[in-house]
Amino acid sequence: MATLSCKSCGGTDATKSGFVRGLQRYRCRTCGCNFTNTPPTGKPAAMKAMVVLLYAMGNMSLGMIGRILVVSDVSVLRWVRAEAEALPDPAVPADVKVLVLDEMWHFVKNVRPALALARL
Ligand SMILES: [Zn+2]
What we know:
Blueprint: E1 14-20, E2 23-28, E3 34-36, H1 45-56, H2 62-69, H3 73-86, H4 103-110, H5 113-119
Antiparallel strand pairs: 1-2, 2-3
Helix pairs in contact: 1-3, 2-3
């Protein structure tokens, strides 16, 4: 028999506490949480880490990552957002000013539109 551990605190001291959906239910003596001896749900952390790498470094779309890993694109989006929210704020020096460059405007201003499109 596999070791029995609480899904909330990880404690191994548990007592039987009836049945739920045909499965034996246990009650943790440490935290009082009820649980069954079933494998944890959800995708492994390694898959989520690979999703973040593919999105950030592989420049793949959320939908393409989802199709490759056979998960929904919404799940991929949630994993990427969760990792992004866990990151610390970037350290930006106070003397940096926001500068928006409109390169296309400068390009079109100096060249006729037909030539500008032809050069693209
Ligand atoms: Zn517990």
